[in-house]
Write a structure and sequence with these properties.
By secondary structure, this protein is mostly beta strands. The chain folds into 5 domains: 27-133, Immunoglobulin-like (Sandwich), CATH 2.60.40; 142-247, Immunoglobulins (Immunoglobulin-like, Sandwich); 258-366, Immunoglobulin-like, CATH 2.60.40; 369-482, Macroglobulin (MG2) domain (Immunoglobulin-like), CATH 2.60.40.1930; 491-626, no CATH class. It is 0% helix and 53% strand.
Length: 633
C-alpha cells in the first residue's frame, strides 16, 4: 500500500489465508521369486513377480509385469507377461520358464506400476532401492553310459560292463542311486545281479555288472537309472542313444575249434605222411595276420619232416596248414595240434583234445614187413645153404609177414614178389632166371621151378610193397650149390666093436687128375656113413644107423698146375681128417656096437671149370675099436 509500509501473512487458514498445502509421497518396488532354484532340464519352473507400494496403493485397474531372460538358456512357457490386481498395496502374478539344456538362467522383471491417484512408477528387478535382484535358475541334466560300447569275448568267459551316470549343472544326490542292466537281445546271462549301486556327492559315478554266454552271438545290453540330483529331484535315463546317453553296449561272443586230419591213417615206414591242421571260428573271423599251429607227437615213434609248426592265413572263418611226419620204425603214433587264434581281438587257445568241437588227436599206424625166404627141392625140403646133386629141381619160397611193432589192426601184407636166381652165392652175379610178380597167397609166394646144373647159385626175393601200407623189401640172399654126387662104399676097417661115446672119425684127400692152367676151386659137402649092428657083426642094424660123420669143407682152391693131394697126402696128418662124432647109444643100455662092412663116402662135389677128373681117397676109423687111444680125429 502506498505510503503505509508492509503486511505479513501466513497460510494458516486465517483472515482469508489458506491453510498449509499437504503432499502425499508414495513409492513402489518389484520383486521376483524364488531368488534361486534348481530344476531338472525339461521341467517347468514358475517365477512369481510381486509389486509393492509404500505410502499408497496400486491403482484399481492393476497393472502388467514383464519378465525377460537376461542370460542363460531357456524360454517362457506361454507369455512372458502377467497382470496383477489393483486396489491393494501389493499384488503378484506369475510367468513360467523351462530349459532343454543345463545351465544358469537369470530372469528379470519390470513393471510400470500404476498408483492410485498418483500416476505410475517404473520399477525393475535390478537390486536398487527396495527392488529385488534378478532370479537365478539352475537347470541340471544327467546322462547314462554303458561301456565298453563294443567288445569281443570268448564264450564261457566273464565280461564286465561299466555303467556311468553323469550330472550336468549339478551333482548326484548324496545317497547315490541304482543302475539296472538288461539284455535287450542276443544270448547270455548275468553273473550275479543285474543291478549295481553308485555313490553320490559328485557329478559322476560308476558301478559294474558282469555277463557271460555259453553260445556265440551278439548280445545287446542296456542300462537305466533314475538318477537322484542334489536339490532337483531325479531324472530317469536309459542307454537309448538319445541326448547325451550312450547306446546299448554290444557284446560279440566268439568260439573256435581245431581239427587234425586224417583222424587215422596207415603208412609204410620210411614214407612221409601229411597232416592237415584246420582252425575254424564261430561268431567271427580269424585276424588278418593269421596264426600259427603247433603239432606234437604225444606218443609213439616218428619225427617231423621239417618243422612241427605251420602258419595259416587270416581273414576267413576257417583256415588250414600242414605238417609232415615220418617214422623209420613200426608202431602207433599219436599227434596233437594246438593254436592260439585271434578272433575279433579275443585270443582263443584250442587243442585237439576232443573237447567241445575240437577233434581228438590224429592216430598214425606205421607198418613194416619182414621177408623170409627158403630154397626148397621138389619134395619141399629146405636146401638153403646146402649142396644138392646137379639136376635137382628147386624153387624159392618167400614169406612176407608183419614186422614186430606193426599195429595189430593193420591187415597182413598182400602184393607180389619178384624172384631172381644168380650164378654165384652172393646175389650179385649173372642172372640165371627171373620170375617177377608172383602173388602172395596166405603170405607166401613161390617161384617157378629151376633144374640145377653144377655150380653155385643164390636166390633173391623182392617184395614189391603194398601201396600206402607196406614198404618194399628184399629178402636175404640164399645161396646153395649143385654138384656131382659121389657115393662110394668100402674103406674096410675090419670087424669093429666099440662102445657108446667112442669117437668115430672120417676124412679124405683129393687131387686133380691132370694139371690145369688156372686154379680150380673145389667144395666138398657131405658125410661118411658108418653102419652099426647090435648084438654081433651080423646082428640087426641099429635103429638110427648109420653114424654120419660130417666131412664138409670150405671151398678150397687148388693152385694152377698142381696135381698134389689136398688138403694133405698123408693119411696120418690131422688135415686128412675132416670130422668126428661120438658114437651115440644106438643099441641101448650101453651095449657094444658092431661095424664090419665098412662105410660109405656120400658127398657132393662142386668144382670150378677144369680138365681131367678129381680123384678122392677117403677113410674112417674108430680108434677105441682098435685098442688105440679114443681120439677126436
Amino acid at each position: 500500500m502506498d505510503g503505509d509500509g508492509s503486511l505479513s501473512r501466513t497460510t494458516d487458514g486465517t483472515a482469508g489465508s489458506s491453510g498449509p498445502a499437504q503432499m502425499n509421497w508414495v513409492d513402489a518396488n518389484i520383486q521376483i521369486a524364488p531368488a534361486t532354484a534348481t530344476n531338472p532340464v525339461g521341467t517347468n519352473h514358475t517365477v512369481t513377480i510381486t509389486v509393492n507400494t509404500s505410502g499408497g496403493t496400486i491403482a484399481a485397474g492393476g497393472g502388467t509385469a514383464t519378465a525377460s531372460i537376461a542370460s542363460g538358456p531357456g524360454s517362457f512357457v506361454g507369455a512372458n507377461t502377467c497382470t496383477y490386481l489393483g486396489g491393494g498395496a501389493s499384488a503378484s502374478c506369475t510367468v513360467v520358464i523351462t530349459s532343454a539344456t543345463a545351465g544358469t538362467t537369470k530372469v528379470s522383471a519390470t513393471s510400470s506400476i500404476p498408483l492410485a491417484g498418483d500416476g505410475s512408477v517404473s520399477r525393475t528387478t535390478d537390486g536398487t532401492g527396495g527392488n529385488s535382484g534378478q532370479a537365478q535358475k539352475n537347470w541340471v541334466d544327467a546322462n547314462i553310459q554303458i561301456a565298453p560300447a563294443t567288445a569281443t569275448n570268448e564264450i564261457g568267459t566273464n565280461h564286465t560292463l561299466t555303467i556311468t551316470v553323469n550330472a550336468s549343472g549339478g551333482t548326484i544326490a548324496a545317497g547315490g542311486g541304482t543302475a539296472t542292466a538288461s539284455i535287450a537281445s542276443g544270448p547270455g546271462s548275468f553273473v550275479g545281479a543285474n543291478t549295481c549301486t553308485y555313490t553320490g556327492g559328485s557329478a559322476s559315478a560308476s558301478c559294474t555288472v558282469v555277463i557271460t554266454s555259453a553260445t556265440v552271438g551278439t548280445t545287446k545290453v542296456s542300462a537305466t537309472s533314475s538318477i537322484p540330483l542334489a536339490g532337483a529331484g531325479s531324472l530317469s535315463r536309459t542307454t537309448d542313444g538319445t541326448g547325451s546317453n550312450s547306446s546299448p553296449a554290444e557284446k560279440t561272443w566268439v568260439d573256435a575249434n581245431i581239427q587234425i586230419a586224417p583222424a587215422t591213417a596207415t603208412n609204410a615206414v620210411g614214407t612221409n605222411h601229411t597232416l592237415t591242421i584246420t582252425v575254424n571260428t564261430s561268431g567271427g573271423t580269424i585276424a588278418a595276420g593269421g596264426g600259427t599251429a603247433t603239432a606234437t607227437i604225444s606218443s609213439g615213434p616218428g619225427s617231423f619232416v621239417g618243422g612241427n609248426t605251420c602258419t595259416y592265413p587270416g581273414g576267413g572263418a576257417s583256415a588250414s596248414c600242414t605238417v609232415v611226419i615220418t617214422s623209420a620204425t613200426a608202431g602207433t603214433t599219436e599227434i596233437k595240434a594246438s593254436t592260439t587264434v585271434s578272433v575279433g581281438g579275443a585270443s582263443l587257445t584250442r587243442d585237439t583234445d576232443g573237447s567241445g568241437a575240437n577233434s581228438g588227436p590224429a592216430t598214425k599206424l606205421w607198418a613194416d614187413d619182414v621177408v623170409t625166404t627158403t630154397v626148397r627141392n621138389s619134395a619141399g625140403n629146405d636146401i638153403t645153404g646146402q649142396a644138392v646133386p646137379a639136376g635137382t629141381v628147386v624153387h624159392d619160397e618167400a614169406t612176407v609177414s608183419k614186422a614186430a611193432g606193426t599195429p595189430a589192426s593193420v591187415p597182413d601184407p598182400t602184393g607180389t614178389v619178384d624172384f631172381t636166381l644168380y650164378d654165384n652165392g652172393t646175389c650179385d652175379g649173372n642172372v640165371v632166371a627171373t620170375d617177377p610178380g608172383k602173388p602172395l597167397v596166405g603170405g607166401v609166394a613161390t617161384s617157378a621151378d629151376f633144374t640145377t646144373t653144377t655150380g653155385t647159385f643164390s636166390y633173391r626175393a623182392h617184395f614189391n610193397g603194398q601201396p600206402g601200407v607196406y614198404p618194399a623189401h628184399d629178402g636175404p640172399c640164399e645161396a646153395f650149390e649143385a654138384g656131382k654126387h659121389l657115393t662110394y662104399g668100402g674103406s674096410m676097417e675090419g670087424a669093429l666093436k666099440f662102445q657108446p661115446g667112442a669117437w668115430v672119425n672120417g676124412g679124405y684127400h683129393f687131387k686133380l687128375a691132370q694139371k690145369n692152367t688156372s686154379p680150380v676151386t673145389v667144395h666138398v659137402t657131405g658125410v661118411i656113413n658108418v653102419p652099426v649092428h647090435c648084438g654081433s657083426a651080423k646082428g640087426p642094424l641099429a635103429a638110427g644107423s648109420p653114424i654120419a660123420i660130417p666131412v664138409s669143407i670150405a671151398p678150397f682152391t687148388i693152385p694152377a698146375g698142381s696135381t698134389s693131394w689136398y688138403l694133405t697126402g698123408d693119411q696120418k696128418n690131422i688135415l686128412g681128417w675132416m670130422g668126428s662124432v661120438q658114437a651115440p647109444d644106438l643099441c641101448g643100455g650101453g651095449q657094444t656096437m658092431y661095424n664090419s662092412e665098412g662105410a660109405t663116402f656120400d658127398v657132393i662135389v662142386v668144382s670150378g671149370a677144369h680138365t681131367g677128373g678129381i680123384n678122392f681117397q677117403w677113410h674112417y676109423r674108430i680108434p677105441a675099436a682098435k685098442g688105440k687111444p679114443d681120439t677126436n680125429c
